[in-house]
Amino acid sequence: MTEPIISFKNFSFQYESQSEKTLDQINLNIFPGEKVMIAGASGSGKSTLGRCINGLIPQAYPGEMSGECLINGKPLNNSSIFDLSFDVGTVLQDPDSQFVGLTVAEDIAFSLENDQLPQVKMHEVTKKWSKKLDLTDLAQHSPQELSGGQKQRVAMAGVLIDESKILLFDEPLASLDPASGAASVKLIDQLAQKQSLTVIIIEHRIEEVLKGGIDRLVIMRNGKIVANDSPQKILKQSLLEKLGLREPLYLSALKRAGINLVECQNIDQVSRITEPQINQKLFEWNEHAKLSKKVKKGSTLLAINALSFGYTKEHPIIKDLSLEIKKGEMISLVGRNGAGKSTLSNLITGFLSPVSGSIKFKGQDLLNMSVKERAQYIGYILQDPNQMISKTMIYDEVASGLLLRGFLEDEIKQRVENILRICGLYEMRHWPISALSFGQKKRVTIASMLVLKPEMLILDEPTAGQDLKHYTEIMTFLEKLQQKNNLTIILITHDMHLMLEYTQRTIVLDHGKVLLDAEPAKVLTNDEIIKRAYLARTSLFDLAERYQLPSATDFVAKFIQAEREDRA
Amino acid sequence: MNSQFLIGYNDKDTFLHRLSGSTKLIGFIAFSIIGMVTYDTRFLIGILVFSLVLFKISQINIKEVSLILKLIIVFAALNLLMVYVFAPGYGMTIYGTQHMIWRNPENYFNLSWEELFYIFNLFLKYTFAVPLALIFLITTNPSEFAASLNKIGIPYKTSYAVEIALRYIPNVQRDYRTISLAQQARGYEISKKAKFWPRVIGNAQIVLPLIFTSLDRIEVISQAMELRRFGRDKKRTWYMEKNFKKSDYLSLIVIFIIVLVGVMLFGVNGGRFWNPFK
């Protein structure tokens, strides 16, 4: 039997700054050539496990270790990051923040520079890897100019160039659009086979990674490994759902249709899954489920007419765009990077001024108003709450908008406390913001906008990088705001789940124009739109198509409706 | 990449662009030192003409650098005025003669040919270095900066800090803009509409989030660098380093000769000053 390339034996780790163990009695063997996915909620210890594999622990994150951990035969406790970097190549979460070179070629060559490779040899090797990852034409570009998928390829080239046998990915999909994410998963799979690598992927987005084919799924919870088996076995037992993780959508759909997953073959691939009854049961369920009538539409809140914008005449970013948004809608705004999503929201909130066209809010012309004035009608919430928060205490942060608008102290107090209650932050009102979790911070930023009594919120990637629990927490909160306070919400997102599950309408932007404005189920079952807007097909669509259900769109819509009814 | 910097690299193909960054850096530093030390007007005029010729060869567009030139002119003029105001008789002390243009040496404010000549020398010192600095900055690929600094003996970790700073300018700019917009929506006026103090306070609100965001970035990037073995060895090689060619060696010889002339003039003049008044 072959020796494991990575082996943890009764391994525990406690960060210096923490009072409890983050990893508790870990036993795990990973064998050469295996593709392993490590999943788990935030704080489950999966990132810490990753840091042990690449040696950031204990060097960059000091703490107390016990038990044994061997990485390619080297004991962790007396190997440096540098020693391990020859065995383990690490691709961090956000490629943008880990580029060091001013150009793509320099970034790829970075570790060779540190190894003092002679320049001629370095140019040769860099060229070889640029070619392998299809980056040759981009070599002289600045990494920041590239698309999400290209950036990730640069980051991969930069570690593959070491020819280390173990490749570790820390949430590789978090900052990618769905199409680039799917492409990445495929590329990782190909590379692993061609270079005979051992691959470890730490990721929330289980369904996407499974699609690339995984040998083993390791699930962590509270610092312990709670499942460690082939994806087939784990999926059959519905362990993901039981452990509070997101199950692939097609499996949820099959369960809804009354199929027993234990009986299924090839359960990890929607294109190959088989069970004698699937066909019949899906048809029955589809027949039986009825789509409810459309909800009545509210009055027009925001009307955009023939809007155009561009920094130069030759390259318009928004082209003659018209759009109407009704009161009380929850809308997803999707499209690939650079399609004009952020530009559009900046035009609405007044950070940019259009070249031509009009934006009206309840009939009033928004273009005559300043950013400050518009914020009373439309609140804009950035992806990263740390970029919005400028005070140290929760109460002050939420009150600051009112203070600056010259409200009296009594009224401020009353309004802030009211909003804090709505947002579930009232008990923490005197807390320092630094003590909050990401989701709580997000709520603080939402509260500080809501206090101005806007009728509409625009949120940029509200759930990016969140696990299912925090994702659900944020989204149910927003859903409650929409339903109880009749707030109109626009979500800018790359998350196809979010779009399907929570929004009633999807606006697809492409090249500054509305490519499609329809229900989410219609968008995600339209292959042409999916391709042009860099979206990804939902596995529900694959399922419906494979079993030739009468209308894939209706099937997806019915499933989502059933899920929503369960949630309500 | 040009728009990222106040004065950016321009990618042309001239003799100076082809020189290695280290040669240009050595030339700039050597000329600056000898030019700062000497007060030989003939020598200073010589290197000023030389640097203007180089500037011409480099094909740098005056428009690209007009802002920085204006700043330098204002600063230099102010400085020269102050030199006069604080010691109007200093020129006479140096040269030991008194050729008066206006009033007597007994008055605090007076003007002599000696003072004028002294200030003229200072003026030359300020001017000759400017084209050289611009040449170094504009004809050297930013990717080569770090390599050039390292080559002339600065530790590579320090040199790399320069490259990382250049690399992060666009990120910090983008963060600044995003945060600024978020604060404006809150109600801080930062635009030109607002009065001075509200604008200052508004801008101060950006600093805290900007610092936190930047600190996060620093942590990530330093880990990413360590994971790729930055700092393991005492030395490193550079992808963008230009090897010395014939033209580099020739240039270094020319630089050496010019500096040597400057040093020899100390002997001829019997000190740093060339005195036409004797």
TrEMBL record, chain A:
The keyword Translocase applies. GO terms for molecular function: ATP binding; ATP hydrolysis activity; ATPase-coupled transmembrane transporter activity. The keyword Transmembrane does not apply. It is a peripheral membrane protein. Belongs to the ABC transporter superfamily. This is ABC superfamily ATP binding cassette transporter, ABC protein. Keywords: ATP-binding, Cell membrane, Membrane, Nucleotide-binding, Repeat, Translocase, Transport. Pfam families: ABC_tran, DUF3744. Probably part of an ABC transporter complex. Responsible for energy coupling to the transport system. Residues 6-247, 302-536 form the ABC transporter domain. It comes from Liquorilactobacillus aquaticus DSM 21051. It is found in: Cell membrane. GO terms for cellular component: ATP-binding cassette (ABC) transporter complex.
TrEMBL record, chain B:
Its main location: membrane. The lineage of its organism: Bacteria, Bacillati, Bacillota, Bacilli, Lactobacillales. Keywords: Membrane, Transmembrane, Transmembrane helix. The keyword GTP-binding does not apply. It is found in: Membrane. It is a multi-pass membrane protein. GO terms for cellular component: plasma membrane. The chain crosses the membrane at residues 25-55, 67-87, 116-138, 249-268. It comes from Liquorilactobacillus aquaticus DSM 21051. Pfam families: CbiQ. This is ABC transporter permease. It comes from the Bacteria.
